[in-house]
Design brief:
Oligomer: single chain
Structural class: alpha+beta
Radius of gyration: 17 Å
Order of helices and strands: EHEE
Helix content: 10-25%
Largest sheet: 3 strands, antiparallel
Number of helices: 1
């Protein structure tokens, strides 16, 4: 059995977010189903992007959390 993962970036606006995200996901599923892949689910992976010390402390940035969504297919 083969597996394939595809990054999925849901919309960031609050206007119709659920409908837009559902339409985008449906499009990704349909695109890969045409190639013989079966949709398995969406996995979310959380991580922390490290901050930067900057140059002599100028331009320093704090670490921040990021959640990545990944669509999983199998065939």
């Amino acid at each position: 059995m083969e597996y394939m993962t595809v990054p999925f970036d849901p919309p960031t606006s609050r206007d119709g977010t659920a409908n837009v995200a559902a339409t985008q996901l449906q499009s990704v599923i349909a695109q890969h189903a045409a190639s013989g892949w079966e949709y398995t689910g969406v996995a979310n992976h959380s991580t922390v992007v490290p901050g930067s010390m900057g140059c002599f402390g100028f331009g320093a940035t704090a670490p921040y959390p990021v959640t990545l969504s990944i669509v999983v297919f199998k065939r």
